[in-house]
Amino acid sequence: MRKIARERLDELFAKIAADKTLYLPVDTDGGAQFLPWKEGTALSSALHTVRSPKDFFFPQTENLMAFRREGKKIELIDVRKEQEDFVVFGVRACDVRAFDVLDNVFLKEPADTYYQNRRQHGIILSLGCGKPAETCFCSTFGIDPAEPKGDVACFFSDDELFLEPVTEKGKAFLASLDGLTEACAENAADALKAQTRERMKQLPLADLTTDAFGGDKTETYFRSPAWAELSRSCLGCGTCTFVCPTCQCYDIKDFDTGHGVSRYRCWDSCMYSEFTKMSAGQPRLTQLERFRQRFMHKLVYYPANNDGMFSCVGCGRCLAKCPIHMNIVKVMKTLVKEAQGE
Amino acid sequence: MQEITRDQLLRKAKELLQNGTVDRVMGWKKGEFDYDLTPAVFKTEGDLSEFVYSDFCGANFSKYLVSETRADGKVLVFLKPCDTYSFNQLLTEHRFDREKVYAVGIPCDGMLDASKIRAAAGDFTTVTAHGDKLIVKTLFDGEVEADRNAFLPDRCVNCKSKKHVCYDELLGTDGEVLDSHRFDEVEKLESMTADERFAFWQGELSRCIRCNACRDVCPACTCEKCVFDNPKSGVENKAAADSFEEKMFHIIRAFHVAGRCTDCGECSRVCPQHIPLHPLNRKFIKDINTFYGAYQAGEEVGTRAPLTNYSKTDIEPKDAAERGKTHA
């Protein structure tokens, strides 16, 4: 394990940013957001960014390809540019797990080469949590916010930053910073990590479990009468899906440029009335069905297809941001209560 | 601190359920913490155990009545003064059946903004009001005492009216239309140069993620199918060509609700990116006041709004254009 004094953080960031773009959480009028570091940029102390770091690998919009027509010939143009290595600092343990969720979707054969390309070029410097929020429930999904994984796992004390390589990529990257960091005992951050784990136990959502959910629960919950009341005041907006680090649905559309076609992909939301519209219409006609789809996907369908892994990581963004404060925690608790006949 | 307590609302709800005036109640349902209340419908007295009324009841219920009144029976709705303006405006637009609603007006002392509390005190679970003081119980840093007024959102700081413009019954005391400073921010924007103003809105609106929460919560946006949700409209606009294209959505929306927006402020409340959207609508309200005389959407049911009416004293388009130039 390596360490560096907090007061030398800017030197560290400058060194990284000298040959790679470095993104880190920065306070803005709209809350903390990942922004490129430049001299004078201050690291946010916020626990979470408003938007999740999924944007780095799965941006809200991207051009996939273009078609140009000349006479009877149609030319196909690959619009991708060569991706350069980039570094993201300050990714929390929940958001790092979210990359695993996305990997299962995008990297399974046939791999999504757009996503894959960015993934290969991204270096993740994760950051352990000192003070989790009341909306946090990552431990529900077996995530330890004190050991955040990624390529290099970092942890702050009051005056130092500890850096621990996790992957081979992280080891090589950390070695490139050797001149700035110094070696320290492997257990240097252990007391702080223990404090985080202790704090996790005190959180209001600490008792939430996934015991009642999983790939075999479709029949248990699909027809639950609880969905009607749970979804009743849902506005049908896309806030939960867009701030979610694991929501990965997208639409592909063609834009007529006048000389051809630009084919792009953009985030879509299962909460939207025109989502997955096909020739026969939208298969989920009511907000109840659309609402149910989102939570069944996180808690039942995704685990069914991914060896039991849930596609919620307990980051709590939806708890903080839903305009009507309906969220996966309330859904889980209500469904379980209903199934138990209470 | 609110003048009316949960117990008073609960008593009223139970009384109206018992005597058959209504068969269900729209209210706020308790959440995991003090601030995360969800709009809900309560059908029995037993259901009402989860009914909450507190400083976090900001949600405006008026728009829910559009779908709620499609069911049989009568629904009880509690309306804060600003909610009653939306209520009237929806009635003016024939968006719900008045006969199916029993409206109880409740006074409001402003509703708190949880994100402001979090920014000042840290993560918290419970908030107790003692007059103008709040005791915020934080997660790991004990209790913090703070001034309640510091945590009010702009719409409450600049509250336009404590007066209920519509109700079947009123609990507590009715207030007055207030002499608010709600147009100060608009004037500040007007005094900018065009370039400064463009930069301001570029900074704010480029954060938009097009979640549509502002539109979906807006009581003036009650189209059954929004043009932006219609793939056949040609303006479905799921992806922005540049980081500022979202301005078109917000400007078009502001035009669409001009003269109908009551300035309830729900758009700014729900924006996950904290974009101040209400100044766009207030600019229209201010201009309508200037050009056509003071007009407050929702103040009365059935009035013809200046933009959908014609009178010989209406400002000539060329004069309006002339005035616009002075702010260019």
Element layout with pairings:
The complex is a heterodimer of chains A (342) and B (328).
Chain A: E1 2-5, H1 9-17, E2 21-28, E3 31-36, E4 61-70, E5 73-78, E6 86-91, H2 93-106, H3 113-121, E7 122-127, E8 152-156, E9 160-165, H4 168-175, E10 182-183, H5 190-202, H6 218-221, H7 226-231, H8 239-243, E11 250-256, E12 260-267, H9 287-305, H10 317-321, H11 328-339
Parallel strand pairs in A: 2-6, 6-7, 7-8
Antiparallel strand pairs in A: 1-9, 1-10, 2-3, 4-5, 4-12, 8-9, 11-12
Chain B: H1 6-18, E1 24-29, E2 38-42, E3 51-52, H2 64-68, E4 75-79, H3 81-92, E5 101-105, H4 114-121, E6 124-130, E7 133-138, E8 143-147, H5 154-157, E9 169-170, H6 184-190, H7 194-205, H8 213-217, H9 246-257, H10 266-270, H11 278-292, H12 317-326
Parallel strand pairs in B: 1-4, 4-5, 5-9
Antiparallel strand pairs in B: 1-2, 1-3, 6-7, 7-8
Short description:
By secondary structure, chain A is an alpha+beta fold.
Strand content of chain A: 15-25%
Report mean pLDDT of chain A, rounded to a whole number.
95
State the helicity of chain B in percent bands.
25-40%
Calculate Rg of chain A over CA atoms. 22 Å
How is the biggest beta sheet of chain B arranged? 6 strands, mixed
**Total strand count of chain B, please?**
9
Query: Oligomeric form of this entry?
Result: heterodimer
**Domains of chain B, number:** 3
Radius of gyration of chain B equals 21 Å
- What is the overall number of helices of chain A? 11
> Helices and strands of chain B: which structural class?
alpha/beta
Query: Unreliable stretches of chain A, pLDDT < 50, 5 or more residues?
Result: none
Estimate the helix proportion of chain A, in percent. 25-40%
How many structural domains are formed by the residues of chain A? 2
Compressed to H and E, one letter per element, the order of chain B equals HEEEHEHEHEEEHEHHHHHHH
Strand-residue proportion of chain B: 5-15%
- Helix/strand-derived category of chain A reads alpha+beta
| Average pLDDT taken over every residue of chain B | 93
The greatest interface between two protein chains, and residues involved on each side, is:
A-B, 50 and 43 residues
The biggest beta sheet of chain A is recorded as: 8 strands, mixed
